[in-house]
């Protein structure tokens, strides 16, 4: 049986996004009859993968280099809010659900243009 660690170096970017999509859908299924908020505390690439999954956007066209630079688009302590707008699973971005924090040369502002790319 392969472990997550075994798959780490063999998994393509598309497979990674698909795996995240599977996990997110399992979590949503567990809570489908409950009115609740879900909080995912994850690293930058997973923020992107969850967002693309919920907004039904493809996970294609990213290189390993772009994946390694996700922190530029989703800095430390970034917050992204998505809201389910219809019972059939349509999700939309809730911009500035929490205002970004800036101090000196740091900001945790998400690059919304990157996040909402086609």
TrEMBL record:
InterPro entries: His_Pase_superF_clade-1, His_PPase_superfam. One of its GO terms (molecular function) is phosphatase activity. It holds the Pfam family His_Phos_1. This is Protein UBASH3A-like protein. It comes from Trichinella zimbabwensis.
